[in-house]
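Why do we bother with holo predictions? Because pocket geometry can differ from the apo form. Keep that in mind while you read this record for FER.
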Amino acid sequence: MSGLSNKRIVLASRPIGEPKTDDFRLETSTIAPIKDDEVLIKTLYLSLDPYMRGRMSAAKSYADPVAIGEVMVAETAGIVVESKSDRYAVGDYVCCRSGWQEYFVSHHKDPMTYKVDPDKVPLSAYLGVCGMPGRTAYFGLIREGKPVAGETLVVSAASGAVGSVVGQIGKKLGLHVVGIAGGEKKCAYVKEELGFDECVDYKATDFDSALKTACPKGIDIYFESVGGAVTEAVAKQFNLGARAPICGFIASYNATDITKERTPFHIFGELENPPEHKFFLVFDHYADFAEANNALTDWVANGEIKYKETIADGLELASEYFSWLFSGKNFGKLVVKVADE
Ligand code: NAP
Ligand code: FER
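The structure, written out:
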């Protein structure tokens, strides 16, 4: 398959504020022949995630930025189309970190490339509910949130990839689960289809009082994904001994200078009795990924955990759809379908 043509999207410029489509460039490269112990993977689905906004910026962070002219990072799900490894056969389905492109050559020892089984759950689910976002929900709630049955859990970005799973696991653990989401449609889905006890619309004028009504015993755990006005409202209702694992604060990701933002650390730190709060990374729990992968795929396969996806059709759409994460135009996990098998 040497000489294979590969469409890819590279970072053309560092976005100022909200990323625009011309911050990216569609290119065509040629895939070199694979070497011993390598596999050639065809991308079928590509995951779009909020953390990618951080990689577009040169600001100091836990991970290096994508260089200008380099392929945008992403986790993808695909199929092995050529193998010079005894560990992978043509036709194996895998997840890998190929980035925004059609083909990827992986060394068979790359720890970020691993086999998945689309007979158990659909392939795209390995990028969401059974992938990085699902694992974030699993470890963030169970290990960082330290839930006790009967407590009240509030989940921001509740209809999204991470939040939807946090709340559903919370229900399994016997918590009173209150979601926060933007708009009536998302709130209805969170309550009626995902089974949260309540879901409060942060865009409604009575948000503060509605949140209070939904949490009659105060808030014991707040799963933070958003920041901004949502966090200010939550902060007024913490019980003593509360925990607030900080998964992210997407409301600030498009700020022109993120170092000047009022973050959840500022908001919680100013309280007389702050909740236990620290930023965590899903990767902190890397050693136990198999535990989360097994639990999540079992729950999805037997219908105990539900999920929704927004699927963009075609690699070329990745740069346009990426901004949906920040406007809330996505509903559930945002994925790009790159190719048919
Ligand atoms: P998602 O919820 O599927 O999509 C993002 C959602 O955020 C949007 O749909 C929107 O929902 C909401 N949002 C965007 N801007 C907002 C604003 N200004 N105010 C309030 N809500 C806003 O995304 P996800 O993949 O599950 O990620 C959720 C969070 O988890 C992000 O902060 C992400 O960085 C974080 N994360 C962290 C880790 C980690 O290891 N620490 C790993 C994965 C993800 P509405 O329509 O409801 O507003
Ligand atoms: C990871 C750790 C964290 C990762 C993604 C994140 C793709 C996301 C962090 C965020 O959204 O803030 O290993 O892998």
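The pocket of NAP (ligand 1) is lined by residues 49-51, 133, 136, 157, 159-163, 181-182, 186, 225-226, 228, 230, 247-248, 250-251, 280-282, 325-326, 328, 330, 333 (CB under 6 Å).
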